[in-house]
Protein backbone atom coordinates (compact mmCIF):
# COMPACT_ATOMS: atom_id res chain seq x y z
CA UNK A 1 0.00 0.00 0.00
CA UNK A 2 1.29 3.44 -0.87
CA UNK A 3 1.09 6.02 1.85
CA UNK A 4 0.88 9.68 0.92
CA UNK A 5 3.45 11.87 2.59
CA UNK A 6 2.11 14.83 4.56
CA UNK A 7 2.56 18.14 2.83
CA UNK A 8 5.45 20.26 4.05
CA UNK A 9 4.85 23.54 5.82
CA UNK A 10 6.06 25.62 2.84
CA UNK A 11 3.73 23.70 0.50
CA UNK A 12 0.81 24.22 2.86
CA UNK A 13 1.64 27.93 2.85
CA UNK A 14 1.48 27.88 -0.95
CA UNK A 15 -1.93 26.18 -0.68
CA UNK A 16 -3.18 28.89 1.68
CA UNK A 17 -1.84 31.70 -0.49
CA UNK A 18 -3.55 30.25 -3.55
CA UNK A 19 -6.84 29.67 -1.75
CA UNK A 20 -6.76 33.20 -0.35
CA UNK A 21 -6.39 34.71 -3.80
CA UNK A 22 -9.12 32.45 -5.19
CA UNK A 23 -11.43 33.33 -2.26
CA UNK A 24 -11.81 29.60 -1.63
CA UNK A 25 -12.96 29.60 1.98
CA UNK A 26 -13.02 25.83 2.37
CA UNK A 27 -9.49 25.34 1.03
CA UNK A 28 -8.25 28.32 3.06
CA UNK A 29 -9.64 26.87 6.28
CA UNK A 30 -8.13 23.45 5.60
CA UNK A 31 -4.68 24.85 4.81
CA UNK A 32 -4.80 27.30 7.73
CA UNK A 33 -5.55 24.53 10.25
CA UNK A 34 -2.80 22.31 8.85
CA UNK A 35 -0.29 25.16 9.07
CA UNK A 36 -1.22 25.97 12.66
CA UNK A 37 -0.64 22.32 13.59
CA UNK A 38 2.83 22.27 12.01
CA UNK A 39 4.14 25.68 13.08
CA UNK A 40 5.15 24.81 16.68
CA UNK A 41 7.47 22.00 15.49
CA UNK A 42 8.73 23.69 12.32
CA UNK A 43 12.33 24.71 11.78
CA UNK A 44 13.23 28.39 11.29
CA UNK A 45 14.15 27.57 7.68
CA UNK A 46 10.72 26.09 6.95
CA UNK A 47 8.97 28.95 8.76
CA UNK A 48 10.92 31.48 6.70
CA UNK A 49 10.22 29.66 3.46
CA UNK A 50 6.57 29.45 4.48
CA UNK A 51 6.07 33.17 5.02
CA UNK A 52 7.96 33.81 1.78
CA UNK A 53 5.32 31.72 -0.03
CA UNK A 54 2.69 34.12 1.34
CA UNK A 55 4.19 37.15 -0.44
CA UNK A 56 2.11 37.03 -3.67
CA UNK A 57 -1.13 36.70 -1.73
CA UNK A 58 -0.18 39.39 0.80
CA UNK A 59 0.58 41.66 -2.13
CA UNK A 60 -2.61 41.06 -4.11
CA UNK A 61 -5.38 40.19 -1.65
CA UNK A 62 -7.91 42.86 -0.77
CA UNK A 63 -7.30 44.42 2.63
CA UNK A 64 -10.63 43.10 3.83
CA UNK A 65 -9.76 39.53 2.90
CA UNK A 66 -6.12 39.41 4.02
CA UNK A 67 -6.23 40.02 7.75
CA UNK A 68 -6.11 36.32 8.68
CA UNK A 69 -3.10 35.75 6.41
CA UNK A 70 -1.29 38.79 7.82
CA UNK A 71 -1.87 37.62 11.38
CA UNK A 72 -0.69 34.10 10.59
CA UNK A 73 2.45 35.66 9.14
CA UNK A 74 2.98 37.48 12.44
CA UNK A 75 2.56 34.24 14.39
CA UNK A 76 5.12 32.45 12.23
CA UNK A 77 7.58 35.32 12.69
CA UNK A 78 7.09 35.12 16.45
CA UNK A 79 7.80 31.39 16.28
CA UNK A 80 11.04 31.85 14.35
CA UNK A 81 10.57 32.94 10.73
CA UNK A 82 12.93 35.61 9.45
CA UNK A 83 10.74 38.70 8.90
CA UNK A 84 13.00 40.31 6.29
CA UNK A 85 11.59 38.48 3.20
CA UNK A 86 8.07 39.76 3.91
CA UNK A 87 8.82 43.24 5.24
CA UNK A 88 8.51 44.99 1.87
CA UNK A 89 5.02 43.71 1.16
CA UNK A 90 3.79 44.08 4.74
CA UNK A 91 4.98 47.67 5.03
CA UNK A 92 3.49 48.56 1.66
CA UNK A 93 0.08 47.06 2.46
CA UNK A 94 -0.13 48.44 6.01
CA UNK A 95 0.99 51.90 4.88
CA UNK A 96 -1.54 51.81 2.05
CA UNK A 97 -4.28 50.74 4.45
CA UNK A 98 -3.45 53.45 6.98
CA UNK A 99 -3.36 56.11 4.25
CA UNK A 100 -6.75 54.98 2.99
CA UNK A 101 -8.13 54.91 6.53
CA UNK A 102 -6.96 58.49 7.01
CA UNK A 103 -8.97 59.51 3.94
CA UNK A 104 -12.02 57.99 5.58
CA UNK A 105 -11.81 60.15 8.73
CA UNK A 106 -14.02 62.97 7.38
CA UNK A 107 -16.57 60.39 6.20
CA UNK A 108 -16.58 58.78 9.63
CA UNK A 109 -17.02 62.18 11.27
CA UNK A 110 -20.08 62.86 9.13
CA UNK A 111 -21.67 59.49 9.70
CA UNK A 112 -21.01 59.60 13.45
CA UNK A 113 -23.03 57.10 15.48
CA UNK A 114 -24.48 55.64 12.30
CA UNK A 115 -21.14 54.08 11.38
CA UNK A 116 -20.58 50.44 12.31
CA UNK A 117 -18.55 47.57 10.91
CA UNK A 118 -20.71 45.37 8.68
CA UNK A 119 -21.21 41.76 9.71
CA UNK A 120 -22.74 40.48 6.49
CA UNK A 121 -23.41 41.25 2.84
CA UNK A 122 -26.61 43.20 3.51
CA UNK A 123 -24.94 45.39 6.12
CA UNK A 124 -21.99 45.95 3.79
CA UNK A 125 -24.31 47.15 1.02
CA UNK A 126 -26.09 49.46 3.46
CA UNK A 127 -22.76 50.85 4.65
CA UNK A 128 -21.52 51.53 1.12
CA UNK A 129 -24.79 53.29 0.37
CA UNK A 130 -24.24 55.56 3.37
CA UNK A 131 -20.63 56.15 2.38
CA UNK A 132 -21.61 56.89 -1.23
CA UNK A 133 -24.00 59.63 -0.12
CA UNK A 134 -21.35 61.35 2.02
CA UNK A 135 -18.33 60.83 -0.24
CA UNK A 136 -18.86 63.82 -2.57
CA UNK A 137 -18.95 66.13 0.45
CA UNK A 138 -15.33 65.22 1.28
CA UNK A 139 -13.99 65.09 -2.27
CA UNK A 140 -14.05 61.31 -2.80
CA UNK A 141 -15.65 59.40 -5.63
CA UNK A 142 -17.57 56.22 -4.89
CA UNK A 143 -14.68 53.85 -5.58
CA UNK A 144 -12.25 55.84 -3.43
CA UNK A 145 -14.75 56.05 -0.60
CA UNK A 146 -15.45 52.30 -0.64
CA UNK A 147 -11.72 51.48 -0.62
CA UNK A 148 -11.23 53.89 2.27
CA UNK A 149 -14.15 52.32 4.15
CA UNK A 150 -12.70 48.84 3.71
CA UNK A 151 -9.35 50.04 5.07
CA UNK A 152 -11.04 51.82 7.98
CA UNK A 153 -12.60 48.60 9.21
CA UNK A 154 -9.85 46.11 8.36
CA UNK A 155 -6.36 47.67 8.44
CA UNK A 156 -6.11 47.03 12.18
CA UNK A 157 -6.13 43.30 11.36
CA UNK A 158 -2.91 43.80 9.40
CA UNK A 159 -0.98 45.80 12.00
CA UNK A 160 0.10 42.75 14.10
CA UNK A 161 2.08 41.56 11.10
CA UNK A 162 4.45 44.49 11.76
CA UNK A 163 4.27 44.59 15.56
CA UNK A 164 6.13 41.28 15.71
CA UNK A 165 8.96 42.07 13.24
CA UNK A 166 9.54 45.51 14.74
CA UNK A 167 10.18 44.01 18.16
CA UNK A 168 13.23 42.35 16.58
CA UNK A 169 16.29 44.47 15.86
CA UNK A 170 16.87 42.78 12.51
CA UNK A 171 13.34 43.74 11.53
CA UNK A 172 13.84 47.37 12.53
CA UNK A 173 17.19 47.52 10.76
CA UNK A 174 15.69 46.17 7.52
CA UNK A 175 12.47 48.20 7.62
CA UNK A 176 11.71 49.88 4.27
CA UNK A 177 9.68 53.06 3.77
CA UNK A 178 10.06 54.09 7.42
CA UNK A 179 9.12 57.74 6.83
CA UNK A 180 6.00 56.85 4.84
CA UNK A 181 4.85 54.27 7.38
CA UNK A 182 5.53 56.57 10.34
CA UNK A 183 3.60 59.45 8.79
CA UNK A 184 0.66 57.21 7.86
CA UNK A 185 0.57 55.68 11.34
CA UNK A 186 0.77 59.01 13.16
CA UNK A 187 -2.21 60.34 11.20
CA UNK A 188 -4.62 57.67 12.46
CA UNK A 189 -3.45 56.89 16.01
CA UNK A 190 -6.72 58.23 17.44
CA UNK A 191 -8.84 56.19 15.05
CA UNK A 192 -7.15 52.80 14.51
CA UNK A 193 -6.80 50.73 17.67
CA UNK A 194 -3.29 49.33 17.29
CA UNK A 195 -1.77 52.28 15.42
CA UNK A 196 -0.33 53.80 18.60
CA UNK A 197 1.51 50.54 19.33
CA UNK A 198 2.92 50.51 15.80
CA UNK A 199 3.98 54.15 16.09
CA UNK A 200 5.80 53.43 19.34
CA UNK A 201 7.87 50.74 17.65
CA UNK A 202 8.62 52.95 14.66
CA UNK A 203 10.05 55.53 17.08
CA UNK A 204 12.30 53.07 18.93
CA UNK A 205 15.96 54.15 18.85
CA UNK A 206 18.74 51.67 18.12
CA UNK A 207 22.49 52.11 18.57
CA UNK A 208 21.72 55.54 20.01
CA UNK A 209 24.57 57.36 21.81
CA UNK A 210 23.76 59.19 25.04
CA UNK A 211 25.59 61.30 27.56
CA UNK A 212 24.27 60.58 31.04
CA UNK A 213 25.26 62.91 33.88
CA UNK A 214 24.73 62.45 37.61
CA UNK A 215 24.65 65.97 38.92
CA UNK A 216 25.09 65.14 42.62
CA UNK A 217 28.24 63.03 42.23
CA UNK A 218 29.50 65.02 39.20
CA UNK A 219 30.00 61.80 37.28
CA UNK A 220 29.30 61.31 33.59
CA UNK A 221 29.00 58.42 31.17
CA UNK A 222 29.00 57.91 27.43
CA UNK A 223 26.37 55.24 26.83
CA UNK A 224 24.54 53.48 24.01
CA UNK A 225 20.92 52.34 24.13
CA UNK A 226 18.59 50.48 21.82
CA UNK A 227 15.30 48.62 21.80
CA UNK A 228 13.73 50.61 24.65
CA UNK A 229 9.99 51.23 24.32
CA UNK A 230 9.41 54.05 26.79
CA UNK A 231 11.07 56.14 29.48
CA UNK A 232 9.66 54.05 32.33
CA UNK A 233 11.81 51.23 31.00
CA UNK A 234 14.73 53.57 30.34
CA UNK A 235 14.54 54.87 33.93
CA UNK A 236 14.83 51.36 35.39
CA UNK A 237 17.63 50.35 33.02
CA UNK A 238 19.68 53.46 33.77
CA UNK A 239 19.39 52.79 37.50
CA UNK A 240 20.30 49.11 37.03
CA UNK A 241 23.33 49.98 34.90
CA UNK A 242 24.74 52.97 36.78
CA UNK A 243 24.03 52.45 40.48
CA UNK A 244 26.82 50.57 42.22
CA UNK A 245 30.08 50.93 44.05
CA UNK A 246 31.39 54.51 43.63
CA UNK A 247 34.92 53.17 43.99
CA UNK A 248 34.32 51.23 40.77
CA UNK A 249 33.10 54.30 38.87
CA UNK A 250 29.37 53.92 39.57
CA UNK A 251 26.96 56.26 41.31
CA UNK A 252 25.62 55.76 44.84
CA UNK A 253 22.05 54.73 45.44
CA UNK A 254 19.66 51.84 45.85
CA UNK A 255 19.77 49.48 42.89
CA UNK A 256 16.46 48.36 41.41
CA UNK A 257 15.23 45.02 42.71
CA UNK A 258 15.92 41.98 40.50
CA UNK A 259 12.22 41.65 39.68
CA UNK A 260 12.15 45.27 38.45
CA UNK A 261 15.17 44.71 36.23
CA UNK A 262 13.64 41.50 34.89
CA UNK A 263 10.40 43.36 34.14
CA UNK A 264 12.34 45.92 32.09
CA UNK A 265 14.26 43.27 30.15
CA UNK A 266 13.00 39.75 29.46
CA UNK A 267 11.14 38.66 32.61
CA UNK A 268 7.59 39.03 33.85
CA UNK A 269 6.61 42.56 32.73
CA UNK A 270 4.42 43.34 35.74
CA UNK A 271 6.24 42.53 39.00
CA UNK A 272 4.30 42.24 42.26
CA UNK A 273 4.11 45.57 44.06
CA UNK A 274 5.18 47.58 41.02
CA UNK A 275 8.46 49.39 40.32
CA UNK A 276 9.90 52.42 42.09
CA UNK A 277 11.96 55.16 40.45
CA UNK A 278 15.37 56.31 41.69
CA UNK A 279 15.87 59.55 39.77
CA UNK A 280 14.34 62.58 38.22
CA UNK A 281 15.38 62.53 34.56
CA UNK A 282 16.11 65.96 33.07
CA UNK A 283 17.30 66.99 29.61
CA UNK A 284 20.07 69.45 28.77
CA UNK A 285 17.68 72.40 28.87
CA UNK A 286 16.46 71.55 32.37
CA UNK A 287 13.09 70.21 31.20
CA UNK A 288 11.84 67.08 32.89
CA UNK A 289 11.97 63.87 30.85
CA UNK A 290 8.62 62.32 31.54
CA UNK A 291 8.48 58.57 32.03
CA UNK A 292 5.38 58.47 29.83
CA UNK A 293 7.47 59.59 26.84
CA UNK A 294 10.04 57.76 24.74
CA UNK A 295 13.82 58.05 24.37
CA UNK A 296 13.22 59.59 20.93
CA UNK A 297 11.48 62.52 22.67
CA UNK A 298 14.69 63.52 24.48
CA UNK A 299 16.15 66.48 22.57
CA UNK A 300 19.60 66.42 21.06
CA UNK A 301 22.27 68.63 22.60
CA UNK A 302 24.54 68.91 19.59
CA UNK A 303 25.04 65.39 18.27
CA UNK A 304 23.89 63.49 21.36
CA UNK A 305 20.91 63.29 23.62
CA UNK A 306 21.78 64.23 27.19
CA UNK A 307 20.12 62.89 30.33
CA UNK A 308 20.80 64.40 33.72
CA UNK A 309 20.00 62.28 36.77
CA UNK A 310 18.71 64.39 39.65
CA UNK A 311 17.21 63.28 42.99
CA UNK A 312 13.50 62.49 42.71
CA UNK A 313 11.34 65.34 44.06
CA UNK A 314 8.72 62.81 45.13
CA UNK A 315 8.32 59.05 45.05
CA UNK A 316 7.40 57.66 41.65
CA UNK A 317 6.14 54.16 41.01
CA UNK A 318 4.62 52.30 38.09
CA UNK A 319 3.32 48.84 37.36
CA UNK A 320 4.68 47.77 33.97
CA UNK A 321 8.39 47.21 33.34
CA UNK A 322 8.21 47.34 29.56
CA UNK A 323 5.49 48.16 27.06
CA UNK A 324 6.54 45.64 24.37
CA UNK A 325 7.05 42.14 25.78
CA UNK A 326 9.26 40.85 22.93
CA UNK A 327 11.36 44.00 22.49
CA UNK A 328 14.86 43.21 23.77
CA UNK A 329 16.53 46.31 25.25
CA UNK A 330 20.20 47.17 24.99
CA UNK A 331 22.06 49.52 27.32
CA UNK A 332 25.76 49.76 27.95
CA UNK A 333 28.40 52.08 29.32
CA UNK A 334 30.88 52.82 26.56
CA UNK A 335 33.10 55.06 28.61
CA UNK A 336 33.22 56.64 32.06
CA UNK A 337 33.88 60.30 31.40
CA UNK A 338 37.01 61.72 32.99
CA UNK A 339 36.22 64.30 35.71
CA UNK A 340 37.12 67.28 33.52
CA UNK A 341 34.95 66.06 30.64
CA UNK A 342 32.02 65.36 32.97
CA UNK A 343 32.45 68.83 34.50
CA UNK A 344 32.39 70.36 31.02
CA UNK A 345 29.10 68.71 30.20
CA UNK A 346 27.62 69.64 33.57
CA UNK A 347 28.58 73.26 33.03
CA UNK A 348 26.59 73.29 29.77
CA UNK A 349 23.35 71.79 31.06
CA UNK A 350 20.65 73.85 32.75
CA UNK A 351 19.45 73.24 36.28
CA UNK A 352 16.37 71.09 36.54
CA UNK A 353 13.19 73.17 36.34
CA UNK A 354 10.64 73.01 39.08
CA UNK A 355 7.19 71.75 38.27
CA UNK A 356 4.01 73.11 39.77
SSE inventory with pairings:
Elements: H1 9-21, H2 25-38, H3 44-53, H4 55-60, H5 67-79, H6 84-111, H7 121-134, H8 142-158, H9 160-163, H10 169-174, H11 178-187, H12 195-202, E1 208-214, E2 219-226, H13 231-242, H14 258-264, E3 275-276, E4 280-282, E5 300-301, E6 304-310, E7 317-318, E8 330-336, H15 339-348
Parallel strand pairs: 1-6
Antiparallel strand pairs: 1-2, 2-8, 3-7, 4-6, 5-6
General description of the model:
The structure is a single chain. This protein is α+β, with helices and mostly antiparallel strands and 356 residues long. It folds into two domains: 9-202, no CATH class; 208-348. Helices cover 48% and strands 11% of the residues. It is built from 15 helices and eight strands. The chain has helices at 9-21, 25-38, 44-53, 55-60, 67-79, 84-111, 121-134, 142-158, 160-163, 169-174, 178-187, 195-202, 231-242, 258-264, 339-348; strands at 208-214, 219-226, 275-276, 280-282, 300-301, 304-310, 317-318, 330-336. The strands form two sheets. Strands 1, 2, 4, 5, 6 and 8 form a six-stranded mixed beta sheet that branches. A two-stranded antiparallel ribbon has the order 3-7. A hairpin with a 4-residue loop joins strand 1 and strand 2 (219-226). Helix 1 packs antiparallel against helix 2, helix 3 (44-53) runs antiparallel to helix 5 (67-79) and helix 6 crosses helix 8. The radius of gyration is 25 Å and the shape is globular. The model has no long low-confidence stretch (mean pLDDT 93).
Amino acid sequence: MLWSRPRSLPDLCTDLATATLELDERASTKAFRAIVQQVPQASPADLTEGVTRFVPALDQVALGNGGMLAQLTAGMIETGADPVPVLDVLVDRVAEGLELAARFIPVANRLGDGLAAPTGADEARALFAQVGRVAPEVGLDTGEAEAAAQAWFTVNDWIPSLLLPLQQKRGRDALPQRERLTAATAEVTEHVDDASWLLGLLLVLDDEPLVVLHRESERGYAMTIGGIGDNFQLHTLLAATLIGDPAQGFIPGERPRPAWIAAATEGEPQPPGGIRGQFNLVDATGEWIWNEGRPADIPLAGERRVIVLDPPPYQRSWNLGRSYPLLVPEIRIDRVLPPDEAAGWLSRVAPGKRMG
